[in-house]
Amino acid sequence: DPEILEKTIQEFAALDRLVAELRRRTNTGADLDALSAVAAGARAYQDAMAGMLGDWRALAALNIKRNDVAEQVLAEVRDSAEK
């Protein structure tokens, strides 16, 4: 369901806020590096989900057009068969 995917993508903002808060409380280089890795991984995953959502919506729009054209072709075939 695209709506579920869209809502999930929006949840990444909470993760960004959490990582930012942890950065403010952390002063260890290794921990900061780990937080950077988490943030980068989250961004990559979010971008992949957004790409998938875009593809999903494009496919849905294409399917609607395909069905419309199929209905038109079927109507023409029926019209030709009746003549």
Walk me through what this model shows.
With 83 residues, the chain is mainly alpha-helical. 93% of the residues lie in helices and 0% in strands. The longest helix has 54 residues, at 29-82. It starts with a helix and ends with a helix.
**Assembly type:** single chain
What is the N-to-C succession of helices and strands?
Answer: HHH
Largest sheet: none
DSSP helical segment count: 3
Question: In total, how many beta strands?
Answer: 0
Calculate the terminal CA-CA distance, rounded to whole Å: 44 Å
Radius of gyration: 24 Å
Broad shape: rod-shaped
Task: Report the β-strand fraction as a percent range.
Answer: under 5%
Helix content: over 70%
Which SSEs are present, and which pair or pack?
Blueprint: H1 2-10, H2 12-25, H3 29-82
Structural key phrases:
single chain; 83 residues; mainly alpha; 3 helices
Summary?
The chain has 83 residues and is mainly α. Helices cover 93% and strands 0% of the residues.
